[in-house]
Structures
1.
Amino acid sequence: DQQVKQNSPSLSVQEGRISILNCDYTNSMFDYFLWYKKYPAEGPTFLISISSIKDKNEDGRFTVFLNKSAKHLSLHIVPSQPGDSAVYFCAASAPTGNQFYFGTGTSLTVIP
Amino acid sequence: KAGVTQTPRYLIKTRGQQVTLSCSPISGHRSVSWYQQTPGQGLQFLFEYFSETQRNKGNFPGRFSGRQFSNSRSEMNVSTLELGDSALYLCASSLLGDTDTQYFGPGTRLTVL
């Protein structure tokens, strides 16, 4: 049972435009969320996180939005750059455990 | 500071064999988690070790096991390999586990023939 879902396997965006990656979760106990970026042949690298006490967190070009009532989070990348082309995973954890649940990933392609 | 290292990077085995994968965490990190990545399944959590103790375990059969040594290095073992075990196995280390940011290694690509 996939508790964290990324329903878009791929996304293409023009350079300079906004990229929006979406993630839905089913477990209302999740209170901490992360986004990872993964290049081919490399492990995922941490991008940005958000806890459930906030609804927005910004770090440079990256902003994560959390809508707890909808159990939905999104990652906005503005402006998108070709180097952002990678697979993006969202992950969630509950306060009761050390386990992170990952989505299946969205492959972002930024077209120059 | 050196990152998380995993050995070997690539491995080819046949069905029924067993395999051991190794992970060296970032110096000072005491938590090591293992994940399996397959197309369409994303990253599936296997288990997490902290100070040589397994703290959490995912929903994988008993053929998947692990351990952690006193220097925080961790090994993962898969016995009686099946074709479906072909995957990228990633380990991630963090300082204390919990909601600490995890730092991933490059992974071991296992192919079972």
Note: The interface with chain B takes residues 2, 4, 6, 32, 34, 36, 41-46, 49, 51, 89, 91, 93, 97-105 of chain A (CB under 8 Å).
2.
Amino acid sequence: EAEVAQSPRYKITEKSQAVAFWCDPISGHATLYWYRQILGQGPELLVQFQDESVVDDSQLPKDRFSAERLKGVDSTLKIQPAELGDSAMYLCASSLGGAARETQYFGPGTRLLVL
Amino acid sequence: AQKVTQAQTEISVVEKEDVTLDCVYETRDTTYYLFWYKQPPSGELVFLIRRNSFDEQNEISGRYSWNFQKSTSSFNFTITASQVVDSAVYFCALSQDTGRRALTFGSGTRLQVQP
């Protein structure tokens, strides 16, 4: 069964350090999403890619966060410098073409703790 | 803008009881899609069901059933004869054809099923 892969599963870092998360979507899925889930809340979209292009990054804190999907397959989300408030679960999801009717499939997430 | 409200923060039941999780949504679109996801302690979001705005038929899948009512903007989820394995956080989510197509999630309902 095809799955969305993410690594690392857990990351502990100190504030002001740089961190990076990796996501490999289901093969053939053109659309990739990064969500952030703060403890006790629902996930919120950070960035959406269609192939290698960003289609929505309106909620991405661009002063410290960056995301790329250079070849339209896997993706990296980076935070530099990390702040205490960045402690959260970072979830990656993918869907076939990006239409609203399509189901998004999620990876296991990366739990980030910033000390 | 779209919004999803899950007013029940936490529900605790005893095994074999029936339980209903409430979801109320807001959207200006006439075409939209509603989803339920399950998040077990491992953290991965597991897709349960998708419903489009033109299909108000209720659906049953084993012990799970969903009641979609456009008149009250609700999409409630019922688990019949709950089991300990049903313990998780359940999220209702919405996507729409115009504007942002990513999912808008509610804040989730934590279900604890006691043996």
Note: Residues 11 and 112 of chain B are 6 Å apart (CA to CA).
3.
Amino acid sequence: RKEVEQDPGPFNVPEGATVAFNCTYSNSASQSFFWYRQDCRKEPKLLMSVYSSGNEDGRFTAQLNRASQYISLLIRDSKLSDSATYLCVVTKAAGNKLTFGGGTRVLVKP
Amino acid sequence: DVKVTQSSRYLVKRTGEKVFLECVQDMDHENMFWYRQDPGLGLRLIYFSYDVKMKEKGDIPEGYSVSREKKERFSLILESASTNQTSMYLCASTTVGGRYGEQFFGPGTRLTVL
């Protein structure tokens, strides 16, 4: 079983709509959680951290459910520029070693 | 702006060749990482380094070695390339005092082993 699992998608989203997707992790000792974004043929970049109480960054909302061991990302009012692969990232302990999920592809269409 | 550069965007090698992938970062970062990215598998950590001349194995180190002689440069070496090492290789760096969880990636090297 993979440590971090994601639905690969693609999620086809009309422009202006809301899309949400989850990521599950298997190690209950996981401590920190992040979403990275990777555009086609580009390198991954940190989108946002995920805090226990949930957090927002503009149109993006991240949630953490430790009991069920998943995190989620919700994108409101989707823009064409939101089309990308979203990578779920987990760390086991304090430090810089990250474990990546396979990514969820989102396609926003006019 | 942090810049991480990799020596080649595309590389084609033959089975059995020794392959060097170079990564350079210009922000005096202490930590550097090598990943490979394959469809459906995500990024998998090969090796990382927290300091000059220091290296630690990641999750899939077999068939690879690394070298960090200078702080800004981290090299990945395939001693004898095999077809199953065909992949996208990504280098990343981060600093101890930086935003937690943020790694800065290079543009990647797509390696094909024939």
Note: Chain B has a mean pLDDT of 93.
